[in-house]
């Protein structure tokens, strides 16, 4: 895998290398949050613009990709917040908070149904829990890496992930028992 090293004396060269090496990865990451491909491309461009503007201030306290990943994550979350406000949906909707948990569930589940329910459950989580759940569950990133990318403490991430897992489980179990 090709990596880019920040060279303060060559900001243009560094940025061109960033675009060449990381644009697709950043877009893929943003697509995990922003479902529409055109919107994701726009958010990716916004993230790249923020990266360009922030390059002179990059101190090298973290790896360049972690810094860019964090910017891309923030841009995606900001886009989602703006979308929710335009549609009039509260930003922290808790759809499943009071749903019962069922212990006696038929275990002959259809894989396609569970996949749909999982997506619905994740989409219903608050934004921070969605982000932590996706990074930990799907990308299998360690809490320390997620903390670096999000600027959140490991303890807070563990709490968010634990809550997200409980909500996802309750959602899927309640869906299964609705049929």
Automatic annotation (TrEMBL):
<dbReference type="InterPro" id="IPR013249">
    <property type="entry name" value="RNA_pol_sigma70_r4_t2"/>
</dbReference>
<dbReference type="InterPro" id="IPR007627">
    <property type="entry name" value="RNA_pol_sigma70_r2"/>
</dbReference>
<dbReference type="GO" id="GO:0006352">
    <property type="term" value="P:DNA-templated transcription initiation"/>
</dbReference>
<keyword id="KW-0731">Sigma factor</keyword>
<dbReference type="GO" id="GO:0003677">
    <property type="term" value="F:DNA binding"/>
</dbReference>
<dbReference type="InterPro" id="IPR036388">
    <property type="entry name" value="WH-like_DNA-bd_sf"/>
</dbReference>
<dbReference type="GO" id="GO:0016987">
    <property type="term" value="F:sigma factor activity"/>
</dbReference>
<feature type="domain" description="RNA polymerase sigma-70 region 2">
    <location>
        <begin position="19"/>
        <end position="84"/>
    </location>
</feature>
<dbReference type="Pfam" id="PF04542">
    <property type="entry name" value="Sigma70_r2"/>
</dbReference>
<comment type="similarity">
    <text>Belongs to the sigma-70 factor family. ECF subfamily.</text>
</comment>
<keyword id="KW-0804">Transcription</keyword>
<dbReference type="Pfam" id="PF08281">
    <property type="entry name" value="Sigma70_r4_2"/>
</dbReference>
<keyword id="KW-0805">Transcription regulation</keyword>
<protein>
    <submittedName>
        <fullName>RNA polymerase sigma factor</fullName>
    </submittedName>
</protein>
<feature type="domain" description="RNA polymerase sigma factor 70 region 4 type 2">
    <location>
        <begin position="117"/>
        <end position="167"/>
    </location>
</feature>
<dbReference type="InterPro" id="IPR014284">
    <property type="entry name" value="RNA_pol_sigma-70_dom"/>
</dbReference>
<dbReference type="InterPro" id="IPR013324">
    <property type="entry name" value="RNA_pol_sigma_r3/r4-like"/>
</dbReference>
<dbReference type="InterPro" id="IPR013325">
    <property type="entry name" value="RNA_pol_sigma_r2"/>
</dbReference>
<dbReference type="InterPro" id="IPR039425">
    <property type="entry name" value="RNA_pol_sigma-70-like"/>
</dbReference>
